[in-house]
Structure formats: C-alpha cells, structure tokens
Design brief:
2-enoyl-CoA Hydratase, Chain A, domain 1, globular, 10 strands, alpha/beta, 10 helices
C-alpha cells in the first residue's frame, strides 16, 4: 500500500507530496495523520530550511474525503502547521478544491502550473469552513473577490488567480517543481535567523494595525542596532 504522504529531502529542502492520486489526494484520516507527522519532521529537522507542498498526479488536493470520515481531531494538524517558523511553498499542480484550497492558502506563497485551478465549494457542499478560507482568502485577493470565489463556488484558473494576487507565478506544468526548487534554494541561502524575523513581522502585520506593525519593526531595528554597537566594542 502506497504511503499517503511522501517526504523527500533534497539538500536542505523538504518536498512533501500528498500521495492519494487515485482519490485526487483527498484528505482521509491516514493522510491527515501522515501530514501531521511530515510537518513535525519538517519543523524539527534543523538541517531543513524550506518546504514544498504539492500533490501527486493531476490534482493538488480535492479536500476532505467524504467517503472516509475523519474521526480524530481535524484541527490538530493546522495547529502544528501554524507553529512552523520555516517557509512552505505551495506547488499547485492541479485542482485545489475546498479543503485542498485551504491547504494552499496556508502555504506562505503559491507557484501554480498552467493546468491548476481553485474552487471553494464549502457553500455548495454544505460544509462549514475550518482551515482559514474565510480569512486567508480575503487577505490574498481582497474581500470582494473573496466573496465572489466563495459564494459562487466556481472554479478559477491559475491565470485568474495570478491576476487576483492569490498566485505568485504560473509556469508550464513540466517546469513547476523545477521553479519551486529554484525559489526554495534562494530562500535557503539567506540568513536564516533574519529570515525568521522578517517572516514573522510580515505575518504579524495582518493581526493588527499598520501603525502597530511599523512599531514592531522599528523596535526590532533599534534592538538590532544596539546589538551591533555591542559587537563593535
């Protein structure tokens, strides 16, 4: 039986692949638990600096597998994800639907193949959202576009999502992983301590006012200058 989640390390980059292609990588109990384990391994391995999340086959993730109810705490793996302080790139290789769309939204940014598409069908399916779509989507594309996506439950192409700001780049399908690895290597090459600081400051910016964000950055900068002065002595 194939592993529902594959974990591959190339240098200091982890590639995490949802591996239920016969079920369009839909999330069942086994996949969710394996994804939790993969996130923990990624988080705790000090040699790994960047992660790439993708799907096997022609689909990124079709969301929850409604034919196989999840009995465990479905929120645990999102809590684990939120504790990760390393960047995760979403390599969107096909459909990202509902819960799969939410997985994509929780990545730090998205690179999509030309055949990728996105749909939030919570309202159509009568499923209550729980992994962040109502908040993360509007941060990415604005509240009006978020309403159109989530209320219409229609599919939107990678190009449409590029124009809306959800996707950073759209590349030919055969070049998707190569481009994601290229970006991951760039990220892995920078000062990792400062990368973590900058990542956190950006994320905190969405939790308060513009002024609060500026004050946090300024305070950190003043502390940085003070440390530099100490090192000079």
């Amino acid at each position: 039986m194939a592993q529902p989640v594959l974990f591959e390390v190339k240098g200091n980059i982890a590639i995490i692949t949802l591996n239920r292609s016969n079920k369009r990588n839909a999330i069942d109990q086994d996949l969710m638990m394996n994804l939790c384990n993969s996130f923990e391994r990624f988080s705790k391995d000090s040699e790994i600096r960047v992660g790439i999340l993708t799907g096997a086959g022609d689909t990124f993730c079709a969301g929850l597998d409604l034919s196989s109810p999840i009995t465990g705490n479905i929120m645990d793996f999102m809590d684990i994800w939120k504790e990760i302080d390393k960047p995760i790139i979403g390599a969107i290789n096909g459909h990202a639907i509902t819960g799969g769309f939410e997985l994509a939204l929780n990545c730090d940014f998205l690179i999509a193949s030309e055949n990728a598409s996105f749909a939030d069908t919570h309202a159509k399916m009568g499923i209550h959202p729980g992994w962040g779509v109502t908040q993360l989507l509007q941060q990415a594309v604005g509240i009006r576009m978020a309403k159109q996506i989530s209320l219409s439950c229609k599919f939107f192409s990678a190009r449409q999502m590029l124009n809306s700001g959800l996707v950073n780049e759209v590349v030919p399908r055969e070049k998707l992983m190569g481009r994601c690895m290229e970006i991951a290597r760039e990220i892995a090459s920078v000062n990792q301590e400062m990368l973590g600081v900058v990542k956190k400051l950006i994320e905190q910016g969405g939790d308060g006012t513009h002024r609060e964000g500026m004050l946090r950055e300024r305070e950190g900068f003043m502390n940085f200058l003070a440390k530099m002065e100490v090192l000079k002595k």
